[in-house]
Please model this.
Amino acid sequence: MNVLIIGSGGREHAFAWKISQSSLCKKLVIAPGNGGTQDLGLNIYVDPNDFPSIKEICIEHNIDIIIVGPEDPLVNGIHDFFKSDDKLKEIIVIGPCIRGAKLEGSKEFAKEFMQKYNIPTARYKSFTIDNIEQGMTYLEEISSPYVLKVDGLAAGKGVLILDRLDEAKNELREIIVNKKFGDAGSTVVVEEYLTGIELSVFVLTDGKSYKILPSAKDYKRVGENDTGLNTGGMGAISPVPFVDRFFMDKLDREIIIPTIKGLNSENILYQGFIFIGLMVSNGNAKVIEYNVRMGDPETEVVIPRIKSDLLNLLLGIGNGSFSEIDFDISEKTAATVILTSGGYPEKYQTGYGISGIEDADNSLVFHSGTKLNNKELITNGGRVLAVTSIANSIEAAVKKSMESCNKIKFNQKYYRKDIGKDLL
Ligand code: AMP
Ligand code: GLY
Model:
């Protein structure tokens, strides 16, 4: 089989690493890929939203299956583009159709979906320019902190959590009237603030049956002890100790099954990953958000724990055998620590040489923001490398990753040294 992975982050490197181990994989293309994926397959530069160019790649390389890493191409309809093109329609697309992708592409759609199918989530109301004054009144009625969510995609910056009423009112106006987030903010969801522990749960589905992937905890804030600005993720741990069989059964009943059933009731063809972001309090989970893809950096701890042939499972989605394929997960713990460019998620410099990866041989080093410049590996993003280690405990896995992080060198390297500590 010839496989095309779309995307350029640590998530896509982890996919490429796993898929390249499959005996079913004949050719692997990563578009655009990064400095790490090029050792596993052929990197071809493309904008993930440039569907005609992706079509050319598929034809030239006789691609049988594409795995869509990031959300934008899904929200922009890559699945439907393939299925409506005579030359592409036989290619298996891992990633939902455009209507399914609305679970991530529209917060309002996701909230309506959850309400309709009785899926536990925070109470909410949504507002536009037409009822913004009601939005102001609603903010007065609820209590602090105020959670404002821009309806559309906003590069991970579309959730605002504000302590003061005047700030919340001001932001609501900035987003809706002054278009702070452009059209993505034409509608704003205002919702109840949830407390508890965040957890990411991943499901792989062919639309009818599904398999629950390893759960993970992501560390979103840039600073230690969860302080400072939100980032794409500074580290992750899998499994999460409090996620036991009892909890998963409840989650399955209350959230996963209703989600799959809801998609079916809406006649939404969903073949791919569902990432359910949860807030857990006293053993009860509420959905914070759906994403229609795998998480990054969660993928870098989830994928290494999958023992089964992932490509075989994904092909099963296309050929109808998915529900019959065995799915094995390792009992071990995976920890990943993200090495970032100092300054991220705000301003940072790139282009610095990276050394020492070969010394970090107790870990799997997935590249996020790297590229090759005349054979020299250089930094090329805020999140540079995901350093994953596998061991028998969180403590041991984190220790291995910390040792590896120490060995890898680049200018202005920064990483959190407390990943996993809260779970010990
Ligand atoms: P998102 O960009 O949707 O991943 O949201 C960013 C972060 O905002 C989440 O990871 C949560 O930490 C936080 N968040 C979102 N919604 C809520 C909520 N209703 N209550 C508390 N925290 C929330
Ligand atoms: N780590 C969170 C995300 O991928 O959205």
In short: Residues 197-324 form a domain with the D-amino Acid Aminotransferase; Chain A, domain 1 fold (CATH 3.30.470.20). The chain has four domains: 2-94, 124-191, 197-324, 333-423. The radius of gyration is 21 Å.
